[in-house]
Amino acid sequence: MSLAELFLELGAVILALAFVGRAAGRLGITPIPLYLIAGIGLGAFVHLGDAPEEFIHIGAEIGAVLLLFTLGLEYTSGELRDNLKANRSVGVLDLALNFTPGLLAGLVLGFSPLAAALLGGVTYLSSSGIASKVLSDLGRLGNRETPVILAVCVLEDVAMAVYLPVIAALLIGGTLAAVGVNLAVALAAFSLAFFLALKYGHVLSRVIHVQSNEALLLSVFGLVLVVAGLADMLKVSAAIGAFLVGIALSGEVADRTRHLVEPLRDLFAAVFFVFFGLQLDLGSVPDVLLPATVLAVVTSLTKFYTGWYGAARAGVQTRGRVRAGATLIPRGEFSILIAGLGLTLAPTLGPLAAVYVLITAFVGPILARFDAQIAPLLDRRLRLAGVAAVVPAEPAPLAPLAETRETRAD
């Protein structure tokens, strides 16, 4: 492919995204669902060359990393530590409610136990990238329910640090010792990164601080990519590695970095969601549409309740509980990755996961946008059903948000 063709195809894709973004702005919704539709349309009606598709693939990975990095900039290390402690029981509930439906569905569909366990991983993980984008687009980074959403995403990654090495060893027929080594490496890498971010983040901020905006942007962007790459090599989510870099930065460095990185984040985030749509083979949809839809409905409800329960424990009112539940519904890139591991075990696992992810990625942001309309309906239904409380009477303590961010009580 010539350079001219490459530029023309990429330019056409980005201009299409610009129009989609404008349409979302006019409708007053996050552009994520429209980006997904744009990706499906491009994949169905436009044949991109190998070079543009490779660029979009790489851009999508960078988009996921930057989304989590900028989310990390919104929180201090103390807030993260306290919120993880306060929401451990929510993490256990999340695992029980959202891994089990996928596992059972896999067995019902005739998958092997290992393939069914992979489908359980697909349904378990919320998309931290989509959650971050929803929170940013709808101006909810400072809301009281946001730390709960954040804690659930990080706890899921801790679970993945155990899950992925075990699954990988079983797929290649590894010994018990090999499983133990992989598991130890992943957990040690995550623990070390978490400890360094909490303990020595202020040192990193001083080292990286420079007056030149250009030098600061290059330093931060390079550091984020290096840490993300190392995290991925050690079987820890690259996006969570970037998130921990964001947590580590503080003060003036974090404030300046946030403004410098936001345009890059928005560009690559749009590419990230288009790539989702491009991955879907429309020819495979009819065979998996029914099971994917049923699974999406069931696990949307279970994930919604996870967020609702966690926000309620933190003392958040109904609208905030709805926002928390809806924001956690979308599954994302990591679910696609997990499904890809088992294509030799169950060829339909990939298409099933792709359709499932697209349904949840479309529904979640829409529900999150219309929290004001959904909350009164839920309140009325709960009162009619005579449900006085669905959460513990004593709410768990919630770490205070930084004073520089606006908080909301609802």
UniProtKB/TrEMBL annotation:
Annotated TM spans: 6-25, 32-49, 55-77, 148-172, 178-198, 210-230, 236-254, 266-282, 288-308
Lipid bilayer topology: Multi-pass membrane protein
Domain Cation/H+ exchanger transmembrane per the UniProt entry, residue ranges: 16-367
One Pfam match: Na_H_Exchanger
GO molecular function, one term: antiporter activity
Family from the record: Belongs to the monovalent cation:proton antiporter 2 (CPA2) transporter (TC 2.A.37) family.
Cellular localization per UniProt: Membrane
Keywords of this entry: Membrane, Transmembrane, Transmembrane helix, Transport
Name under which the protein is recorded: Cation:proton antiporter
Record carries keyword Glycoprotein: no
Major localization listed first in the record, in broad terms: membrane
Any single Gene Ontology cellular-component annotation: membrane
Record-level GO BP terms: proton transmembrane transport
Keyword Membrane annotated: yes
